[in-house]
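[step 3/7] inverse_fold.run input=structure_tokens len=592
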């Protein structure tokens, strides 16, 4: 049988050293990732990139509201310098440079993550964190208690604290303390969160709008029919861009139904291109002042920006209490956001083992910490893993090649930022809704039979979209889990075991915690070297239910058996293979 050029490329890369490092199928790696193909990884990477491309313009727009490195003394008539032309010109220069800075940060972070962690996840400045950085820490046009340079210094320090916590294994240990039911709830909650984002107008198709009475309501009205708060005064469901977004959602859904490769990517590109002509009702560049500015920037196509206003703008002033508050807030929000996203993507991509950990978790957290430090050097708020990575995983991305491709997309956007900053939100909103629906299927594996597990998981799911915060959802679920299960434990002790629920349906929490060592693998290697003992570098590989011990021989037997029984598509709950077969992994058992 004659091979196609794609098969030749896939086979050539798989047999190379790079293919073995990234564990492509047919590479001969110790544990190949089944059904992985080089060209599939490339396609998945570009799908995630286009789903994340909005961050290039949105992040710069948000952070530039802080005034950045521009300085203006307010007057009684204009306290925040909204009417100072020189100041506004400076802010615009800062914003344009930050577009390039954001792209560079994302490029380095994604490539670093792909190489170190070998996971198909994209990294970029966190959306919630950049808003907190701008409007709470620095303040609109610098009206807060901390200057932009001081706040950026706090982000730089936070990155180093993250790095230390990761090297010592503390960050991984904190992540592993999260119960499995909440980890599953995180995946579902992020799915609903993604859907909510994809239905809004700022980053989605615009079906959901604000309402002063019910907070949210049916939207989709033209911009001229909205009040100052964004609520529709009339004309609901009459916005042309809404219907364009719905069309994109339907196109992606139908293409996925027929298993067309690159369904999400094709839908995003089609809607984006049809939104560029100025003569249509769905144009991204209307004949307004804002639309003209966007179109003028779009026409530049290729633009290389200087970085003098954003590069390494630090002031390390820790004397103010506000600086410490900002530092601590950055720290805990980023820990929860990144942890939640990584574990949900690991669950979605099929990388979670029976103890609730995922492959190369230490390297994933380590590269994230380094990315925060790098991002602060380019004027960006803390970097975190992005839930839009689920779009690439849905396209078949399973290795770090996907992340490297995302980074390559951001590298190209450094020079072609006018093009990549012009993907309208209604082009990518449909993809977020579809990915959200896929991630929500993890709800079937939550332990609904034991209230001590199911109620905290449900709180995690509900709080994320309703508070528009992944971290708040995790906090709510963890606190509920601690209170409920601690009360049950205390009542059992007080009554000497006479009052206790049926534990037979409870998940084995402590067995999962004790199943993995505290120190990361490289720390254990150093300890073994100091003690003069042999060390098995593969002892952290996935442990399934048939593992009897942690010996090298048992690991080898487990690996051989896993390779025989491994599903053709390594997706735990909802993956669809290239041949249409659906597989489901429930806890540690694999069923086809």
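[step 3/7] decode complete -> sequence:
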């Amino acid at each position: 049988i004659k091979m196609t050029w794609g098969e030749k490329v896939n086979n050539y890369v798989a047999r190379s050293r790079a293919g073995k490092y990234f564990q492509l199928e047919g590479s001969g790696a110790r544990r190949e990732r089944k059904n992985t193909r080089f060209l599939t990884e490339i396609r998945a990477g570009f799908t995630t990139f286009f789903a994340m491309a909005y961050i290039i313009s949105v992040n710069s727009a948000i952070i530039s509201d802080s005034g950045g490195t521009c300085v203006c003394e307010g007057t009684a008539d204009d306290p925040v310098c909204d009417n100072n032309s020189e100041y506004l010109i400076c802010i615009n220069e800062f914003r344009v440079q930050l577009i390039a800075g954001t792209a560079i940060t994302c490029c380095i972070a994604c490539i670093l993550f792909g190489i170190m962690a070998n996971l198909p996840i994209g990294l970029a400045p966190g959306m919630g964190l950049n808003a907190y950085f701008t409007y709470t820490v620095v303040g609109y046009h610098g009206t807060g208690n901390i200057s932009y340079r001081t706040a950026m210094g706090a982000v730089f320090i936070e990155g180093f604290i993250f790095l230390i916590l990761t090297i010592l294994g503390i960050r991984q240990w904190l992540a592993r303390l999260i119960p499995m039911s909440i980890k599953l709830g995180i995946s579902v909650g992020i799915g609903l969160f993604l859907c909510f984002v994809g239905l809004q107008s700022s980053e989605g198709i615009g079906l959901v709008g604000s309402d002063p009475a019910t907070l949210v309501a049916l939207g989709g009205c033209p911009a001229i029919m909205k009040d100052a708060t964004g609520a529709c005064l009339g004309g609901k469901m009459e916005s042309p861009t809404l219907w364009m977004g719905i069309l994109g959602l339907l196109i992606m859904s139908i293409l996925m139904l027929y298993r067309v490769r690159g369904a999400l990517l094709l839908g995003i590109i089609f809607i984006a291109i049809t939104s560029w002509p100025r003569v249509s009702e769905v144009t991204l560049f209307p004949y307004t002042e804002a639309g003209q500015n966007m179109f003028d920037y779009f026409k530049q196509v290729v633009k290389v920006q200087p970085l003098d206003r954003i590069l390494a703008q630090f002031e390390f002033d820790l004397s103010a209490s506000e600086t410490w508050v900002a530092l601590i807030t950055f720290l805990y929000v980023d820990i929860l956001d990144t942890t939640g996203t990584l574990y949900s993507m690991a669950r979605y991509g099929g990388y979670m083992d029976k103890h609730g950990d995922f492959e190369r978790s230490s390297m994933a957290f380590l590269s994230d910490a380094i990315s925060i430090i790098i991002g602060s050097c380019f004027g960006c708020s803390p970097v975190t893993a992005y839930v839009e990575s689920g779009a690439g995983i849905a396209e078949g991305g399973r290795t770090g090649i996907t992340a490297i491709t995302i980074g390559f997309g951001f590298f190209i956007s450094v020079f072609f930022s006018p093009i990549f900053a012009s993907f309208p939100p209604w082009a990518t909103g449909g993809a977020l809704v579809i990915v959200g629906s896929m991630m929500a299927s993890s709800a079937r594996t939550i332990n609904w039979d034991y209230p001590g597990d199911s109620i905290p998981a449900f709180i995690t799911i509900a709080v994320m979209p309703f508070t528009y915060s992944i971290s708040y959802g995790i906090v709510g679920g963890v606190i509920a889990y601690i209170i409920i299960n601690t009360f049950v434990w205390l009542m059992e002790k007080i009554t000497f075991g006479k009052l206790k629920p049926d534990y037979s349906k409870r998940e084995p929490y402590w067995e999962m915690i004790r199943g993995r060592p505290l120190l990361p693998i490289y720390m254990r290697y150093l300890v073994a070297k100091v003690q003069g003992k042999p060390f098995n570098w593969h002892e952290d590989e996935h442990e399934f239910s048939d593992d009897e011990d942690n010996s090298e021989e048992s690991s080898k037997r487990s690996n051989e058996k896993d390779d025989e029984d491994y599903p053709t598509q390594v997706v735990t709950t909802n993956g669809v293979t290239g041949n249409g077969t659906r597989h489901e992994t429930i806890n540690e058992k694999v069923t086809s």
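[step 4/7] annotate
The first strand starts at residue 123 and ends at 125.
Residues 117 and 361 are 7 Å apart (CA to CA).
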